[in-house]
Specification:
The protein has a 4-stranded parallel β-sheet, with helices on both faces. Helix 1 links the parallel strand 1 and strand 2. The two termini are 13 Å apart. Helix 1 packs across helix 10, helix 5 runs parallel beside helix 7 and helix 8 runs antiparallel to helix 9. The protein has 10 helices and 7 strands. With 232 residues, the protein is an alpha/beta fold. GO terms for molecular function: amino-acid racemase activity. InterPro entries: Asp/Glu/hydantoin_racemase, Asp/Glu_race, Asp/Glu_racemase_AS_2, Asp_race.
Length: 232
């Protein structure tokens, strides 16, 4: 079994889910007392959050690059970022490590492609929805048509993520707001919803809507385990 390296702390709620899911998935596949071989470097999210709001992507890139280097030096055979947004600097990671980096958008795009869905709603932080680091992979590499909410709705989702979800707060009012945005998109023919923030599935459940939801964190984990134990 290969050792999985995790860059966590963005925020720690999603990192906790990654750790739990990786271990449960390995045990599900291998049985017995098997658990995942994991190394984690967890950053201080306050620093990342301030740099994000200031659009200091290069500074963030240096932090995650250093974390990736720590993981590789510690013996990780592959590296994952336990967050969607910070994949915006994933090129810097790839350029500075010699082990595989599993991009969350690749794992997600592959699964949606297997489902033969085309028109997909992407939800996440405003940076994930507005910048092309995520959508270009899904559109160019997997042939998907990515839809994002209108500007006011993007701002509402972004606020909910930063003011609530990343602090472990999950309210019915925020759930109602996001479901209203999703139902509006469904009327435009959307065939699935990417929950492109690893905390969103803690608020929006697959039973809440009538089309598939794509929990990017869970998808990321499943792909990592298939690589780690060579199930592909």
């Amino acid at each position: 079994m290969k050792t999985i390296g995790l860059i966590g702390g963005m925020g720690w709620e999603s990192s906790k889910l990654y750790y739990e899911r990786l271990n449960k998935k390995v045990n599900e596949v291998l049985g017995g007392s098997h658990s995942a071989k994991i190394i984690m470097v967890s950053v201080d999210f306050d620093e990342i959050e301030k740099l994000t709001h200031a659009h200091h992507w290069e500074a963030i890139a240096q932090i995650v690059k250093n974390s990736a280097n720590q993981l590789e030096q510690a013996g990780a055979d592959m590296i994952l970022l336990c967050t969607n947004l910070i994949h915006i600097v994933s090129d810097t990671i790839v350029e500075n490590i010699s082990v595989p980096f599993l991009h969350i958008a690749d794992a997600t795009g592959q699964l949606i492609q297997e489902h033969k869905a085309k028109k997909i709603l992407l939800l996440g932080t405003k940076y994930t929805m507005e910048k092309d680091f995520y959508t270009k992979t899904l559109e160019n590499d997997y042939g998907l048509e990515i839809i994002v909410p209108e500007a006011r709705e993007r701002a509402e989702i972004h606020t909910i993520i930063y003011k609530e979800l990343l602090k472990g707060l999950f309210t019915q009012a925020s759930k109602k707001t996001i479901l209203e945005i999703i139902h509006k998109a469904l009327k435009q023919g959307v065939e699935g919803v990417i929950l492109g923030c690893t905390e969103l599935p803690m608020l929006i459940k697959e039973t809440d809507i009538d089309v598939p939801t794509y929990d990017t964190g869970a998808i990321h984990v499943d792909k990592a385990i298939s690589m780690a134990i060579n199930t592909h």
